[in-house]
Amino acid sequence: MTPTFASLPLSFDACYRAASGRDQRWDGRIYLGVTSTAIYCRPSCPARKPKPENCRFFPSAAACVAAGFRACKRCRPDALPGSRDWDHRGDLVARAVRRIRDGAIDAVGVAGLARELAVSERHLRRMLLDEIGATPIQLARTRRAHAARVLIEQTSLPLSDVAFASGFGSVRQFGETMREEFGVAPSALPRGWRGSAGAGRGVGAGAAAVDGGGVSAGPGVSADDPFSPAQPRLALRLQTRTPFDPVATRAFFAAHAIGGRDLVSGDAGGDSTHALDVPGGTAQVVIAWGEIAPPAEQTGTTLGVPVVLTLPSLADTMPAIQIARRMLDLDADPGQLATAFGQDPLLGPLAAARPGLRLPGARDGNEFALATVLGQQVSLAAARTLQGRLIAAYAAPGDSLFGLVDVARVAAESAEALQQRLRITGARAATLRALAGALTDGLELHPGADRARTRAELLQIRGIGPWTTELIAMRALGDPDAYPAGDLILRRALGVDSAPAAERLAEPWRPYRGYATQLLWADFLAAQGG
């Protein structure tokens, strides 16, 4: 009989699937104890996974220690804090590390990160030193160094441009940090792009390292560039595991394009352009969908997705790459998902028919949440119209695409003004205003946020229910197990009449119910000719 532990957020089988797939998204949320070695690990530990009968799962590192397990020296699970339920201090450290990894120091500085976490700078520094032995600045410098190494080894950018593109304030600081991190000068590292559209080299994940695969330089930029020559443009290939379905992913972006923020060509396989919100302002990414081979023709284990970034400054390179990767879900492992769903009688055939289907993420959590509220109980086309009105009314115009909606302006409006300006119902206007107020007051909607707390805070807002909350968790929080059980199309695809029935059917798909939902949506809409 499979053992279970009541305090775990997932069943034993779901925990084992997460650990077998080395899914980093569950690091710090579940821990694996191996009875044959008395060692406990992160789910993402690269060591060979033990047999199920030798596994126990725990909600925290402290629970592992209490059960007699010692920390793995390879994946260092003791460097990850425990869950919020038992260790508030540790949870704060984990969130700080995730936000530094996401570039928070570059964006808002140590003072801004401390404010975001509601602690003093001194307290934040002391906690990080105690828990992981490094200050916020040291973690940020390590992140920049790893980002720079990716650009050095896989692009042909001049070293001075690499320095600023990876977030360093000066070439001197760049050189000193690279020597400290890698023991050699930047000029001694291998140079230049050695990849192709179908192959690439990834970057090892780590607490302060750049997430996901590497980048490799693509073709040069035309001299007939329509953008200002003062804006840096970089042609890159963002690496991801194969297979990757460009047709389905492009169709998703076309269906959810927001007027003023996204431009998707009407031609099948045509380019699409999307606004990206980076510390320096509004960047743009152009995705060359037509250059990506269909899954059946993709060879090798990795694929390069060709993009061109137009940036406010070179310092915005890594934030823009990270947002683009999140939007395209380039850090997913299709093989892991195929294994998880392969034996399921319903999902197995769907996963086999749609290899490489991804779960696109939100480029900005606040934008997505506001858009989702506007899209409640209306068609996709009507939702795009309302979202376009919100952008036109409350976002700053850019060179060719709008920037982010000013959430504070929306919160400051009366419900009546929002109702009249956006032409929505009074109840919808009140919900939109309340959500904007919560965002202004510090509600966090990004992959580093506390998922349980964020869900609870969203559900407290009048007009936001489980469906909206789960969509936000899926796209904005990056929760692979988010599941909008009350969704009408999802329930029709499952052939059930209620959310509880949909929940029961989905239990075997944990911890990837979000991907299961994407497969079911895609199959149902295809069957309807959508």
TrEMBL record:
SMART domains per UniProt: AlkA_N, ENDO3c, HTH_ARAC
SUPFAM superfamilies cross-referenced by the UniProt entry: Ada DNA repair protein, N-terminal domain (N-Ada 10) (SSF57884), DNA-glycosylase (SSF48150), Homeodomain-like (SSF46689), TATA-box binding protein-like (SSF55945)
Gene3D superfamilies: DNA Methylphosphotriester Repair Domain (3.40.10.10), DNA-3-methyladenine glycosylase AlkA, N-terminal domain (3.30.310.20), Helix-hairpin-Helix base-excision DNA repair enzymes (C-terminal) (1.10.1670.10), Homeodomain-like (1.10.10.60), Hypothetical protein, domain 2 (1.10.340.30)
Protein origin, superkingdom: Bacteria
Domain called HTH araC/xylS-type: residue spans: 94-192
Protein's UniProt keywords contain Acyltransferase: no
Catalytic activity: Hydrolysis of alkylated DNA, releasing 3-methyladenine, 3-methylguanine, 7-methylguanine and 7-methyladenine
Pfam families assigned: Ada_Zn_binding, AlkA_N, HTH_18
InterPro entries: Ada-like_dom_sf, Ada_DNA_repair_Zn-bd, AlkA_N, AlkA_N_sf, Alkylbase_DNA_Glycosylase/TA, DNA_glycosylase, HhH-GPD_domain, HhH_base_excis_C
Cofactor: Zn(2+)
Sorted UniProt keywords: Activator, DNA damage, DNA repair, Methyltransferase, Transcription, Transcription regulation, Transferase
EC number(s) given by UniProt: 3.2.2.21
Full protein name: DNA-3-methyladenine glycosylase II
